[in-house]
Fold these 2 entries.
Entry 1:
Amino acid sequence: MASEYDVIVIGGGPAGYPAAIRAAQNKLKVACIDEWKNKDGSAVFGGTCTNAGCIPSKALLESSELLVKTRDELGVHGIKVGGVEFDVTQMQKRKTGIVKASTNGIALLLKSAGVTALQGHGKLLAGRKVEYTAHDGKKETLSAKHVVLASGSVPTEIKSMAFDGKNIVDNWGALDFESVPKKLAVVGAGVIGLELGSVWRRVGSEVIVLEALETFLAVADQGLAKEAARHFKKQGLDIKLGAKVSGAKSTANGVEVNYADASGSQTINVDKLIVCVGRRPYTKDLLADGTGVQVDERGFIKVDDHCKTTAENIWAVGDCVRGPMLAHKAKDEGVMVGDMIAGKYGHMNYDTIPSVIYTHPEIAWVGQTEEQVKASGRPYKIGQFPFAASGRARAMESTAGFVKLIAAQDDDEVLGVHIIGPLAGELIAEAVLAMEYSASSEDLQRTIHAHPTLSEALHEAALAADKRAIDNVNR
Amino acid sequence: MAIEIKVPQLPESVADATLVTWHKQAGQSVTRDENLADLETDKVVLEVPAPVTGVLKELRIAPGTSVTSGQVLAVLEEGAAAAAGTAPTMAATQPTKPAAAAKTPAPAAGTAPTMASTSSDKLAPSVRRMVEEKQLDPAKIPASGRDGRITKGDVVEFLDKPAAPAAGKSARAPATVGAAGRQDQRVPMTRLRARIAQRLLEAQQTQAQLTTFNEIDLKAVMDVRARYKDSFEKKHGVKLGFMSFFVKAAVEALKRFPVVNASVEGNDIVYHEYYDIGVAVSTEKGLMVPVLRDVDLQSYADIEKNIGAFAQKAREGKITIEELTGGTFSVTNGGTFGSMMSTPIVNMPQSAILGMHATKERPVVVNGQIEIRPMMYVALSYDHRIIDGREAVQFLVTIKDCLEDPARLLLGV
């Protein structure tokens, strides 16, 4: 194994492996060190996203949603279903298979790109050297012209409800439940909490979500949040706002959770507790002394707009640096750095990063919320189109939700698009592209959308902003 | 035989015209070449002559409607004047655009014929619409979008007007009724006026314009005129005015400072090797600047004749669009109205304009003595992007020197 590289990437998750592959595509000599180990001890690439986040959660969300559909929603189609049974072990088996296929896929991609894939721990030393410790303990010092730090993040742990790996778990643990918990409490009604809460609710758990803030989904457009809250309530997710959890402890038969809300102190007893109140950047044993890399007070590696750290030729990308902790943000940062190291143009547009919540109905948005536009003082107009008015949505029996478009009054620029409804995560892509080109609502109005599709909803929402919708009453 | 009266072929840079007035009504007899209607474009008013003698049978377009080349305006029945009979009223054709269209400033593009369609392939849908609706040249719109694309916001900013609905609403606001006799009268701009307004604003917003002044002692020119005006008129059949002197002096200065005769196109300076000088003429309808072609090759008599002809045509509203386009330099004379000094606005895409003013007898110092001389202040407004102060000043000094000592024009010094 060589000891000198053009680029060493520490971290093989959704920030690290794209950085490595792009650098290799730019004809650089690249090594990618990754230390992820699964619970069964296998060392795999892909990081949190592939192993304990995006991929496994989507697999479970899909399976659980199909269960609900089969059990409750096929009758209207004339399909009689009786005796629906659910095997959680099989659901988990499928998830594991998908995760495995994904991690194998990444390993293959790294290999095909010519990246030297090293499994073990990477530590940045002074002078752009990297100490690589393989899983068997063997140490080696490598040197590189550039080093990319992509060490990711870990779930924020709260001491008063420390993870015990059994009944008080983080998101990874929640993905691996081997049986359906009878009663499940979730601390944090964020993206992860809502998605995991949905999964287990659908397959039979009684789910209580405890959110400390008074506002539900404060990060999203509140019109969207209100609609979402309505649907989650209908689905049986008991979301308590303003509920501050003081602590939880494992008991003989589960978990005792203590929290305080408007009416005072409360205690509930559940089988499992998922704590998902956020994630923090992970830089444990990453930086030796004298590297020149600085970390801010919240633990993020300090970088500029192009992901350069304070040390020369040391870069950092993904969850370990500022910005939304999203896999696609990580990926594009990794690719940007892979290009910049090779002397090419690299750029990140942080204003057009979409967010998706894979609940049902699905939620997605890009750009500013109505609250943000209002606060900016710029006069705006709104166009909204409900999926209930969409022929395609009706045919799909998925009429919940709407598309909401916000545009500026002065020059019609699209400022934000918010979607709740079927395939929102896919539909948002058009809005992202439009905003990348500084499109106006008129540009969307004058673009043909196939009929009958869900994508028409964006077309009609754009028209509605000027009160010229065709397939909905303009108010 | 029924003949369709169509909109004449409009010049290249004009997309449509507005039918302003019908001079004849349906059922009336017309003679060949008689003017049937007036069509107003951004630059001129066009006439629609009757091709043959006959009776106007049917008017198809209502006044205030926008029409395009070749569109049928009316039907004429050839033959001797027919009896009055049933006068068919105008066919009920809805105007293609509401009356508000007459108010909408629809400026033709600057100089070079700019067809929005040729550059529409890379334009966003909203931009395509705006460029076509308002006959804009995309090349002139500063772009802030990705890869230099023009966004709708860029066009909005370029046009410097509020969002359409607001403008539309305000145009329909009722006149304020105050105490008796204090009413406001809202009159929409004519197309010509709106176009003039837009071009003037465009010039100021595009060029780095400023004005340099000087004064000219016109005694020498006046002496020449006094000596030769009679023989000039006798020989050439036209009065010897001042304009020919100024125009000739301008040409001499343009030859010495070619950049003043140039125009800016994108990032290029285009030097013109010919001298087409526009001479501003004031009419009821507005200011027009017909162009004298190849002034360096014209004699003083030619210049005076042509200027006179333009003035006549302007008064009659008969100046053609071709006569108004092109031009590498312009001269304007505010002195006819009494102006002492002013800062004319450059006639884009030209880069400079000479302003003449009223001639007033003033005491000035000549060779150490005070004398009364006929003095005129002159102004040169110029585009500082390509013409530097030194050149502008010296250009004006050249004109001054040539007029204060006309022998210079003769000898080219």
Entry 2:
Amino acid sequence: MYIDNFTEVLPKLVYGYLGIFIVTVVIIGITIILNKVTEKK
Amino acid sequence: MEVLYKYLLEIHWQHIVMWLIGGLLIYLAIKKDMEPSLLLPMGFGAILVNLPFSGAIGEDGALTTLFNAGIDNELFPLILFIGIGAMIDFSPLLSNPKLMIFGAAAQFGIFFTFGLASLFFPEIKDAASAAIIGAADGPTAIVVAQKFNSNFTGAIMVAAYSYMALVPIIQPPVIKALTTKKERLIRMPYAQKDISKMTQILFPIIITIIAGLISPASVALIGFLMFGNLIRVCGVLNSLSETAQKTLANLITIFLGITIATKMEADKFLTPETLLIMGLGLFAFIFDTAGGVLFAKFMNIFSKNKINPMIGACGISAFPMSARVIHKMGLKEDNQNFLLMHATGVNVSGQISSVIAGGLILSFFSELIVK
């Protein structure tokens, strides 16, 4: 078992998974705005 | 006379095992209809490269040349992404953008498996490459494994494509274990919204810019996928869209499958690590499914309009197989419960999220990238 590897990657994995949610929320927000803006036209 | 039998004497048991593995892949492709367009070329290629002194590989081998020209530089998977992008209809997702959150949630398996794999592999790059099998996305798995120059690229590719084909077998038991009958019966009305042409055109461009700014290493992946989609939705390149969806995708698939087999030489493939990678890949698929389902259940705590947690499982990239599986599961529980459009929306969001996940892994571990 390579415990050192695990402790090295763990914080990055947590940030990575959270990162996907942040990016996704941004995309959702932009898409909702885009839908609204183009709906008016 | 010696010419006729001298190579026969060079056959080792490892060659025979690889022929059997190749035969198994061909059998699964033909008889079980499991990803036949990839498993059949891979199976045949596995036999081809495991003939003693095979002229298909080596310095001047045709498959090695194809590998260097199309996979080593990630060109084949990227070009395939143009075809895949042209096949994807983002309308169900654009009708209900909130579904995209399940695509993010279902990438849990990648990150969880990465942590687990890091305990078993001395080199982190191999743990990262094994975990990306959970993206359920062959091209992404190939690109990440190649960028990290993983020692187990062949096994990773075989696992990625095999498990994609096994989605109908892997996902249902996991979903059933995590949901109650009552939850599986939740109906979700679908209201088709008209999505403007402008939104459809701007969506792939915006996604490319956002993903590219966050993870420049993955910009080719998401960019080629979105370029294919832009060709589809722009309305003025119908013949190019059709070519990308059919001719281009088919051509690349033929070469991709057989070229991947270059990495299936017996001495590199028949190792304990291959079994470990197959196990970790399965683990990643299971936890992707669990991540999506559990996140949907979590959302239901706060949501007024309840979500059928089964659709959370579609957040993987195996499109459209995962959406179909969930739709069928919904109908099995209640023959009037039509989840297909919601499931499709989540499934295409999984396609985007898995590429972003691959890109984030490349960004967070950029020091390990060798090419």
